[in-house]
TrEMBL record:
Record protein name field: Phosphoenolpyruvate-protein phosphotransferase
Main location: cytoplasm
Similarity comment: family membership: Belongs to the PEP-utilizing enzyme family.
One Pfam entry name: PEP-utilizers_C
InterPro entries in the cross-refs: PEP-util_enz_mobile_dom (IPR008279), PEP-utilizing_PTS_enzyme (IPR050499), PEP_util_AS (IPR018274), PEP_util_C (IPR000121), PEP_util_CS (IPR023151), Phosphohistidine_dom_sf (IPR036637), PTS_EI (IPR024692), PTS_EI-like (IPR006318)
All copies of domain PEP-utilising enzyme mobile, residue ranges: 152-221
Gene: ptsP
C-alpha cells in the first residue's frame, strides 16, 4: 500500500476501483483552406445548437438531482454559448482560416485569460466556465458523445461543472483530482452531492492505474492505494458507522429543536446570498440568524441601488415568510474593502474603519441600505442587526439613522413595517463589557465569536502563527459569552450566537447552559446540533456551564466538554 496526500474537499470515505476520466483530444486539424471557411462556420453553428440542447438536459438533470441552485451554472453556460462577443471571436478566427475546433479553443482561451486576469474572484471563476464551454463545443465538433459511464472512483485532472453533471452519481463513489482546492467547482459539487473527494493531488494522479483499489478519505485528504485486507476491513467498518450516523441525523431533520425538559432552542442558518435559502429549508432550520449582506456590495464597481437591495432582501424574507430573518447591515472595511468606497490606507485594518464605523462615515450608502431593509420588511419577519457595535453612542446613531429612513418612507407613502426588531452583534469585547447597558437599547443580541475571539485574545483571525489563541474555548471568551447572556436575560431580551462556535456540537451543552436560546450556523451543522439539543436537560447544562466557567485553560474546557459529549448517542 502507498498513500497520496491531497486536500480534503468533501468529507466521507469511499472504497472502489480507479477509473481515469478521458480527456478531450487536442490533435485536430487547426488550419483550413480559405474555401472551407463557410463550411467551418456552419459546423460551428451546428455545434452551438447541439451544445445548447445538451446544456438544457444537464440543467434539468442537475436541478432534479442536486437542486435548482446547482443547475444555475448550466443556464449561464447556455447564455455564454450564444454570447455575441464569444461568437464574434470564434468567427474572426475562422475568417483567419482556423478550423471550427481551433477557433473555439482559441476564443475560449482568450476570453478565459481575460477573466482570469480580473481582480474579482467571481470573474476568475467565469474563466473556468468559458473553458468548459470550449471543451464541450470541441467535443461535439469531433463527434464525441456527452455520456460516458464512469463507475467507482473517478480520477481526473480537474472536474468541470459539465463533467460532474454528466456523471451518474449513483455509480461514482469518490473523486480524486490533480488540480483544484476546497472552493473549486469540483469540490463544491462533490460536497453538494455528498461524494467523498480528495483534490489537488498533483502529479501523483498519474501514478494511479485504472483498476487500482483505493480508499478515498475525504475527512483528512488522503488516498490509500492498494491497501491490505485488514486496512480495508477497518475502513469498511468506518463507512458502516458513518452510514448509521447519517441515517440517524437525517431522521432528526424536521423534529423540533427542543431539550428533554421542553425548552426550545431556535436553530437558524448563516447565509451569504438569497440563493442559499434552499439549503436553509432543506437543513431543517427555523430561519436565518445571520444574512451577511456584503455579497451585494463586494463584486460591484458602484453601490448597489436601493431597488436591487430591496429585491434581494425580499427574496430571503419571502422564502420563509413566518420565520425570523436576521439581516446584518454592511460589514465592509477591514479585509473586505469596497472598490467604490475609497479604502484609506490603515495600519491595522481590523481595528480601523470597519462595519458600523464605516457606515457612519458613508451615511448615504448606509441610509440606502436601511431604506431598502425597511421596504423589504413587508415581505416577512425582518430583524435588523448592526455589526461591530462597541459603544452606546454608535448604537444610538445607527438607530437614529434608521428612524430617519423610516420617516422618509412615511413621507413618501412607501409601506414598511414599523415594528421591525433591532439588535446588535456582540463581537467586540467592549460591547460584551457593557452588555447590560446595550441591552436596554436593543431587542436582541447575537454573539459573533469569530471576531469576539480575535478582539478578546488580540489574535488576528487570519494569522496562523497566533492560531493557538484563536479558540472560542479560551476561558476569557467563554466568560464574556456568559456575561452577555446574563445581561440579556436580566433585560428580558433574547440572545443568540452566529459565530462558528454556534455550529460546533461540542459547544452546544455549554451554550444552552449559559442561556443562549438561538444558534445560527452553516446548514450542514444543523442536524447534529439539533440531535445534541434533543438529548439535553437545561438544569444539567446550567450545572455544567457553572463548572466550565471556573476552568483555567481552553484545553481544560475542551476536555470537560469531550467528557460530556460521551454522554450523548452521537
Ligand atoms: C463573527 O464575527 O462571529 C461573525 C459571525 O461575523 P463575520 O464572521 O462575518 O465577521
Ligand atoms: Mg464579525
Amino acid at each position: 500500500m502507498w498513500k497520496i496526500k491531497g486536500i480534503a474537499a468533501s468529507a466521507g470515505i469511499a472504497i472502489g476501483k480507479i477509473m481515469h476520466m478521458q480527456e478531450a483530444v487536442h490533435d485536430f486539424c487547426r488550419l483550413v483552406d480559405a474555401s472551407q471557411t463557410p463550411a467551418e462556420k456552419e459546423r460551428f453553428y451546428a455545434a452551438q445548437q447541439a451544445a445548447e440542447k445538451e446544456l438544457e438536459i444537464l440543467q434539468e438533470r442537475t436541478a432534479a438531482n442536486m437542486g435548482e441552485q446547482q443547475a444555475e451554472v448550466f443556464a449561464a453556460h447556455k447564455l455564454m454559448v450564444t454570447d455575441p462577443s464569444f461568437v464574434e471571436v470564434v468567427l474572426n478566427h475562422i475568417d483567419n482560416q482556423a478550423s471550427a475546433e481551433a477557433a473555439v479553443e482559441y476564443a475560449a482561451n482568450e476570453i478565459a485569460a481575460m477573466f482570469a486576469g480580473l481582480d474579482s474572484e467571481y470573474m476568475q471563476e467565469r474563466a473556468a466556465d468559458i473553458k468548459d464551454i470550449g471543451k464541450r463545443l470541441v467535443r461535439i465538433l469531433q463527434g464525441g458523445t456527452a455520456e460516458v459511464n464512469y463507475t467507482g472512483i473517478l480520477a481526473a485532472q480537474d472536474l468541470l461543472p459539465s463533467d460532474t453533471a454528466a456523471l451518474d452519481l449513483d455509480c461514482v463513489s469518490g473523486f480524486i483530482t490533480a488540480l483544484g482546492g476546497k472552493t473549486s467547482h469540483s469540490s463544491i459539487l462533490a460536497r453538494a452531492a455528498g461524494i467523498p473527494a480528495v483534490v489537488g493531488v498533483g502529479s501523483a494522479l498519474e501514478k494511479l492505474n485504472n483498476g487500482d483499489t483505493v480508499i478515498v478519505d475525504g475527512h483528512v485528504g488522503e488516498v490509500l492505494v492498494n491497501p491490505e485486507e485488514d486496512i480495508l476491513a477497518d475502513y469498511r467498518l468506518r463507512i458502516k458507522k458513518e452510514q448509521e450516523r447519517a441515517a440517524l441525523l437525517a431522521s432528526v431533520g424536521h423534529l423540533p429543536s427542543e431539550t428533554l425538559d421542553g425548552h426550545h432552542i431556535e436553530l437558524a442558518c448563516n447565509i451569504g446570498t438569497p440563493g442559499d435559502m434552499e439549503k436553509v429549508i432543506a437543513a431543517g432550520a427555523e430561519g436565518v440568524g445571520l444574512f451577511r449582506t456584503e455579497f451585494l456590495f463586494l463584486d460591484k464597481t458602484s453601490v448597489p441601488t436601493e431597488e436591487e437591495q430591496v429585491e434581494s432582501y425580499k427574496a430571503v424574507l419571502a422564502a420563509m415568510p413566518d420565520k425570523k430573518i436576521v439581516i446584518r447591515t454592511l460589514d465592509a472595511g477591514g479585509d473586505k474593502q469596497l472598490p467604490f468606497i475609497g479604502g484609506l490606507p490603515e495600519a491595522n485594518p481590523a481595528l480601523g474603519l470597519r462595519a458600523i464605523r464605516l457606515c457612519m462615515v458613508y451615511q448615504d450608502v448606509f441610509k440606502t441600505q436601511l431604506r431598502a431593509l425597511l421596504r423589504a420588511s413587508v415581505a416577512g419577519n425582518l430583524h435588523i442587526m448592526f455589526p461591530m457595535i462597541a459603544t452606546v453612542d454608535e448604537l444610538l446613531s445607527a438607530k437614529a439613522l434608521l428612524q430617519e429612513a423610516a420617516k422618509e418612507l412615511t413621507q413618501e407613502g412607501v409601506p414598511y413595517k414599523s415594528d421591525v426588531a433591532v439588535g446588535i452583534m456582540v463581537e467586540v469585547p467592549a460591547a460584551a463589557a457593557i452588555a447590560d447597558i446595550l441591552a436596554e437599547e436593543v431587542d436582541f443580541f447575537s454573539i459573533g465569536t469569530n471576531d469576539l475571539v480575535q478582539y478578546t485574545m488580540a489574535a488576528d483571525r487570519m494569522n496562523e502563527h497566533v492560531a493557538y489563541l484563536s479558540d472560542y474555548f479560551q476561558p476569557p471568551v467563554v466568560r464574556l459569552i456568559g456575561n452577555v447572556a446574563k445581561a440579556a436575560q436580566k433585560a428580558g431580551k433574547w440572545v443568540g450566537m452566529c459565530g462558528e462556535m454556534a455550529g460546533d456540537p461540542l459547544a452546544t451543552p455549554l451554550l444552552v447552559g449559559l442561556g443562549l436560546t438561538e444558534l445560527s450556523m452553516n446548514g450542514r451543522a444543523v442536524p447534529i446540533v439539533k440531535h445534541r439539543i434533543r438529548q439535553l436537560d437545561v438544569k444539567q447544562t446550567q450545572k455544567w456551564a457553572d463548572e466550565i466557567l471556573s476552568l483555567r485553560t481552553a484545553s481544560d474546557i475542551k476536555k470537560r466538554l469531550e467528557e460530556i459529549a460521551l454522554e450523548f448517542e452521537i
